[in-house]
Amino acid sequence: MPSRFLIHYAQAHHEFRLPELQSVAELHDISYKLPDDPKDRDPTRPFMVVELESEEHARILARRCILIKAVYEFYAKGSTYEEVHRNNRQSEHLWKRYVEDTSFRFLVTSSQHKIPQSRQREVIESFSYMDFRGKIDMKTPDILLMCFEEYDEKPGTTRERHEGDGDFREVFFGRLIEEGTARQLVRTFDVKKRVYYGNTSMESEISLLMANQTLASPGKFIYDPFMGTGSMAYPTGHFGALVFGSDIDGRQMRGKQKVPGVLRAAQQYGIASRIVDLATFDITINPWRCGDLFDAIVTDPPYGVRAGAKRLGRKRELSERQKELCLMHSKSPRPDDQPYIPPTKPYELSHLATDLVLFSRYLLKPGGRLVFFLPTTDEYQEVDIYSMLCEGMEVIANSLQDFGSWGRRVRSDYSQAPLQVLIIRIQLVTIKKTTSKQFPPPTFEPIQPSPDESAHVPAHRDFREKYFQGFKPKSNETSVAEEATTS
Amino acid sequence: MVRLLTHNLLACHAKNCNANNFPLQFKDVQLEIREADFNPDFLKGFMPKIDWKALVDTARQLGDTSLPLEQPEMVDDEFLKNLHHVLLEIHVEEGSMTCPNCGHVYPISNGIPNMLLAEHEIG
């Protein structure tokens, strides 16, 4: 029979909470049931009560979910202490076995608030009807009981000490089963402590969340087609998967020492043997002999603010004469020539995203997942994500997060000029290959602009250009800004 | 790096090089043997993807004769251990891979193969 567990979540990356729970549950074949009331599964709140088959399942979640701080056996909740005690009495069958002779510690705590000691004691005493006769042990208790008051977050305001004490939203009460151990990985994989990283290396928490979306585990084969400095590879490798990385620019993977940088970082994490190989190639002209190879593709494509995506080719076509000269030169290089580096041209983001989905459909095994990052702007619409899909590929999670906005003022007299902002949003997209049909490799041909003018243009199209030029005035200051740009 | 698993998955992709473009031929190789985690499930799952003849021929060229010429129907532990060693523990660190059809040379340095093509080789 399923029982209820109280999950304490980190107050970070709310959008990823449910997708992560779904992924980890799928990976370990765990069935779960979320609360019926939308208020109770609101991902911005610190607690959620989830139904699970067993305590063991709760432990597995705590060991793998990056966002879980701890799991508790759920005893009671309520918006007043009367309600909590009423519910707690009904849960007596759950805690009765600890009454007789179990050492315990009782903790009263809260979020966004500090409860005064005197009231903490009051709260503890109000539970005296439970009549626990075991020894109170603050250091190594057999069980930890926790009573947690949830206060509403008031971002941007500072509270007086103890201000609004007792004015909580809800109280939760339960017994600690396991503290989340996966959360520590955020520090383990901290980019600042990594022996090799680049200026666009992905922050460790996000890369861990992405690794969970791939269902990485021993025996899985995972591919990152925009490997860069390998940020996505380390957490996936840590969870046991074998990782293959490719990149059009080998310098990112190599670094400056003899042993490639990606391998040195992998050695630091003890997973060097799981980096199957690194190869330099352009995904649009790739050497894969066959498809249906990988359990997951996980990548953080270069989206062009600091490092733009590139593909082989030239921005401007050469004349026939120039082409001939190039060919002659490549056939008889001068002895002191540097190794040949072929020319590249920019790879527009919406085009890259569409290609990546097609490419993944070819390379993924049936049921395999594509997990990637896509930046967009506040003009994002739901349809953007669907415009890049193709037959047999379905979105199973799309976590959109405001990433902050970059603002700038356009005139020299800063304080007077209107503030122009571009709101950047980041979406973590998880797409699943839902077909076992074989598809040919994609052609990577440029998408012809649709003659139909009403065709949908996704907000991530030409992201780089938008970033550098598209700072738009705030709507109420439009006229001023126009004046500013014309003057 | 450049393990035989990878070598078994890469074909020449130069323009108009569509037949006889696999397997690429190793030349002037420096080998290293490095241990890897043995995972029988991964190997069994990967076996249908292997071009067996290419794998055995290449392994023999590099001096490993532990694999049978025909891919066996029944797999035992010893076979899987040998397959594991050949696919995942032999690393080609330096040298090159040459396309048997068009002759394109893909150089390998510090274990990373450069599979980029020149301007006149792309479509």
UniProtKB/TrEMBL annotation, chain A:
Domain Ribosomal RNA large subunit methyltransferase K/L-like methyltransferase: 193-311
UniProt xrefs under InterPro entries: DNA_methylase_N6_adenine_CS (IPR002052), RlmKL-like_Mtase (IPR000241), SAM-dependent_MTases_sf (IPR029063), TRMT11 (IPR016691), TRMT11_N (IPR059073)
Keyword tRNA-binding: yes
Superkingdom, taxonomy of origin: Eukaryota
GO cellular component terms, A-Z: cytoplasm; tRNA methyltransferase complex
Annotated ranges, domain tRNA (guanine(10)-N(2))-methyltransferase TRMT11 N-terminal: 4-180
A Gene Ontology molecular function term of the record: tRNA binding
Location of region: Disordered: 439-459
EC identifiers of the protein: 2.1.1.214
Gene3D superfamilies the record matches: Vaccinia Virus protein VP39 (3.40.50.150)
EC class (word): transferase
Pfam families referenced in this protein's UniProt entry, alphabetically: Tmrp11_N, UPF0020
Keywords, comma-separated and alphabetical: Cytoplasm, Methyltransferase, RNA-binding, S-adenosyl-L-methionine, Transferase, tRNA processing, tRNA-binding
Location of this chain's protein in the cell: Cytoplasm
GO biological process: methylation; tRNA processing
Protein family per UniProt: Belongs to the class I-like SAM-binding methyltransferase superfamily. TRM11 methyltransferase family.
PANTHER family: RNA METHYLASE-RELATED, TRNA (GUANINE(10)-N2)-METHYLTRANSFERASE HOMOLOG
Protein name per UniProt: tRNA (guanine(10)-N(2))-methyltransferase
Automatic annotation (TrEMBL), chain B:
InterPro entries documented for this protein: Trm112 (IPR039127), Trm112-like (IPR005651)
The organism's place on the tree of life at top rank: Eukaryota
Annotated SUPFAM superfamilies: Trm112p-like
Gene Ontology molecular function terms on file: protein heterodimerization activity
CDD domains: Trm112-like
Gene Ontology biological-process annotations: rRNA (guanine-N7)-methylation; tRNA methylation
Assembly with partners or alone: Interacts with TRM9.
PANTHER family: MULTIFUNCTIONAL METHYLTRANSFERASE SUBUNIT TRM112-LIKE PROTEIN, UPF0315 PROTEIN-RELATED
Similarity field: Belongs to the TRM112 family.
Name by which UniProt lists this protein: Trm112p-domain-containing protein
